What does this fold into?
Amino acid sequence: MASLDSVLTCIDLNLDQSLGRLFELLRIPSISTDPKYRSECRRAADYLAGDLAAIGFEASVRDTNGHPMVLARHEGPEGAPHVLFYGHYDVQPVDPIELWNSDPFEPVVTEGPDGAKRIVARGAADDKGQLMTFVEACRAYKAETGGLPCGVTILFEGEEESGSPSLLPFLEGHKDELKADAALVCDTNMWDRETPAISTGLRGLVGEEVVIKAASRDLHSGYYGGAAANPLHVLSRILGALHDETGRVTIPDFYEGVDEVPADVKAQWDELNFSEEDFLGDVGLWLAAGEKGRSVLEQTWSRPTAEVNGIIGGYTGAGFKTVIPAEARAKVSFRLVFQQDPEKLRENFRRFVRERLPADCSAEFHPHGGSPAIQLPFDSPWIAAASEALSEEWPNKAAMIGMGGSIPIAGEFKNQLGMETLLVGFGNGDDAIHSPNEKYEMTSFHKGQRSWARIIERIGRGVAA
Ligand code: BES
Ligand code: MN
It folds into this structure.
């Protein structure tokens, strides 16, 4: 225990330095989805590999068809477990840029309404701040003890925010290097400021871009109006038909593979004392818009969705232009739960669109990733070990929660490498990930480091399989 105490003290004493390192990483605009930032993604990978090598990991940057992977390895004591830590160095685009109070890639520390310090930058919470909590815990361990309490392989990818297209082939191609006793992921939230959380489920995701094509060119909306098909109308009618008046998705077979949450899990969720009013109130809303008769926790954790993420088409510039556009497009995503099959759903959606097209219009589809939901076993010894360690650090014991977001690769650690995944994160619901003014609480960054030090120390003492 003496060594864990000195590691924790080392973390406390070096908070400013660790913040400086996080700032360096946050200054790199590693937006994976936009080809303009390709070299910045590589720069982030190089930075991380360099930092891990400086700690004493055997670290390298590995090329893929997309953005590179960072792979680093450090052996643990003889006989101790070995873990694979996964995180992503890519970030979401910053638009609408005019809503940021400061440059998204010039991190600043500000004070929140509660007076607490927060780190503001794109990627502060998702996922650079979170992944650095683990790196800093390893750094402090090495500095204080000369080693790590368990074996650690670190895998950072740069395409999580675009569906992780290169990761599955990478897992398949590097099984020997990546195989470990369990995967650790730091890309999820706490339950509240005082209560750490272990996420036991994540929703899956299917992304689709649909382009509706009508006339061979943009048309004068007076000369042709009334006669020519308007693809914006066609598109909006189709998108509007995705839900019925009870909020259910109307795509045939959509609910195939969707189960009800077991009674004991529901009972646990009830004990969390979740406030629907606060959850929606925090973002200026008060009416749960999803399926009627379902709680907000069900709507976000255990029910599937269809969401339109963007609609593009026609004249949107200054002033006014009377035009019937030749095409209209939308970006649509579906969150999946339980056993829903991503590719079946994609096909069913495409059929749903095609069946609603006028005969002289056509539709084109562009896939944007697909991953199934994951559900982790509640009785996993990894969860028990992490929960024990987290309870030493935080005022409240760890909550077992669901998470509405997706980490596309999470299920593949089990499928490809036969490993359990442990989802522990220190984000907060108001971190504004994917939004302007994304932030990470300083306490998340600080106590997140301390939490990981405790967790790897606990794992080092052995986890009964
Ligand atoms: N870190 C998030 C997942 C998440 C969201 C965790 C909310 C906790 C709360 C992750 O980086 C993410 O945003 N994933 C994307 C994946 C997609 C773009 C392929 C998502 O869920 O939309
Ligand atoms: Mn993330």
Summary: The longest strand covers residues 204-213. Residues 2-202+373-460 form a domain with the Aminopeptidase fold (CATH 3.40.630.10).
